[in-house]
Design brief:
Largest sheet: 5 strands, mixed
Number of helices: 9
Helix content: 25-40%
Distance between the termini: 52 Å
CATH architecture of the largest domain: 3-Layer(aba) Sandwich
Number of domains: 2
Radius of gyration: 21 Å
Shape: elongated
CATH topology of the largest domain: Trna Endonuclease, Chain: A, domain 1
CATH superfamily of the largest domain: Uncharacterised protein PF11572, DUF3234
Strand content: 15-25%
Number of strands: 11
Length: about 260
């Protein structure tokens, strides 16, 4: 893919074009990427390559690039060493809790979170739609929010016991939603009940610095809780980013009152 075409894709994805974002992942999966490495006396690099990392806002980031030209715009002529690897092979060499920044020196780049990387490891190309659902969300016009009755008070109390194990979780709210019609091939659409009698329960949290590892553990705890209560791990879904101003799901919880607020 030409650099110009790739930039057009990333620009479209940045403003919410799902098809462009999907096409980018399709490209990335088989692309050969350039990865800066530290100076070494070895002529060739082994699978244990010492990739250059950048620390930014508490994140450890490995910069990767679509071409040597893109890399040179980032390193501003420093001519740092680099290796080329197919992305789907490089994926397995990335340390845990590490982010990627794709084409960071160009006008449109792409951050790839540890969460996305783990999904890609687990599912390969089949994970693309799942990732896009989480990152881009679903069309709000297709979503109906249902009020919760007092019958859910006991469930909220039991969820409180789970959340108290995670001090970084500051608030939690519980809602019921229903997709009025399927949204493309979205995973959300396939998980949410279309029966009016059984709308989907969604747990939304605000947190203050939960690590990717802790978020994964919380996900697993909520899935186990869902199985124990409803015999279905997807009966209760977790939205983890309500603390972010640009969360795609904040509007879903706009009228809900938190059932859990961490004590100071």
């Amino acid at each position: 893919m030409l650099a110009e075409e790739l930039q057009i894709l990333l620009e479209a994805a940045a403003v919410g074009n799902r098809k462009a974002a999907k096409k980018f992942y399709d490209y990335l999966w088989t692309a050969e990427v350039c990865i800066p490495v530290k100076m070494t006396s070895k002529r060739e690099h082994s699978p244990g390559d010492d990739f250059i990392t950048v620390e930014h806002e508490g994140r450890r980031i490995i910069p990767i690039f679509s071409s040597e030209e893109a890399l040179r715009q980032w390193d501003e002529g420093e001519s740092c060493n680099f290796v080329k690897k197919e992305f789907k092979s490089f994926l397995w060499l990335i340390p845990k809790e590490t982010w990627l920044h794709f084409d960071g020196g160009l006008e449109y780049g792409k951050e790839i979170s540890p969460w996305e990387l783990e999904r890609l490891k687990d599912g390969g190309v089949s994970a693309f739609d799942d990732i896009l659902d989480e990152v881009m969300g679903v069309d709000e016009s297709q979503v109906t929010i249902y009020p919760l009755t007092e019958e859910y008070n006991q469930l909220k109390q039991e969820l409180t016991y789970v959340l108290e194990s995670y001090p970084a979780v500051k608030e939690a709210s519980l809602i019921k939603i229903k997709l009025e019609s399927p949204v493309g091939d979205a995973q959300w659409a396939s998980r949410i009940e279309n029966d009016n009698k059984n709308p989907q329960l969604v747990l939304g949290i605000k947190h203050d610095g939960l690590s990717e590892e802790k978020l994964q553990l919380l996900n697993e705890d909520i899935e186990q809780f869902s199985v124990s209560k409803f015999e279905n791990k997807s009966a209760l879904m977790l939205v983890q980013d309500l603390h972010l101003p640009n969360s795609l799901y904040r509007s879903w919880f706009a009228d809900s009152v938190p059932f859990y607020i961490a004590s100071l």
